[in-house]
Amino acid sequence: MAEHGDATAAMAALRAEVMPCTACELNKGRSTTVFGSGNPQADVVFVGEAPGRDEDLQGEPFVGRSGQLLTKILTAIGYDRDEVFICNILKHPPPKF
């Protein structure tokens, strides 16, 4: 397994490549690209469908109501958001979110 620093560097490089993405129509109505956050080598990963309005505005996954619930669940089972990796399949919100 790669060292945490190597994984973090690889994730940062991937993030830099993905952030300016304009490859599909979804980028037209977005504020920013919403990349994943947390530990890139986490044993626990949460993958959502797509960012919503709150995520698009803040540029972080799961920060709206669903994210608040996820944070409460993580806390209840003894995890911090920094210990898991959280992302969405899509990096831009779909139309009419």
Set out the fold topology.
Elements: H1 4-18, E1 37-38, E2 45-48, H2 53-58, H3 65-76, E3 85-88
Parallel strand pairs: 2-3
Antiparallel strand pairs: 1-3
Task: Describe it.
The structure is a single chain. By secondary structure, the protein is α+β, with helices and mostly antiparallel strands. The chain has a single domain, classed as Uracil-DNA glycosylase-like domain (Uracil-DNA Glycosylase, subunit E). Helix content is 34%, strand content 10%. The chain is built from three helices and three strands. The protein has helices spanning 4-18, 53-58, 65-76, and strands at residues 37-38, 45-48, 85-88. The protein has a three-stranded mixed sheet with strand order 1-3-2, with no helix packed on it.
Secondary-structure-derived class = alpha+beta
Span from first to last CA? 38 Å
Can you count the beta strands?
3
Described by its quaternary structure, the protein is single chain
Could you say what the CATH architecture is?
A: 3-Layer(aba) Sandwich
Mean pLDDT over the residues: 90
Contiguous uncertain segments of 5+ residues? none
* SS summary, helix count: 3
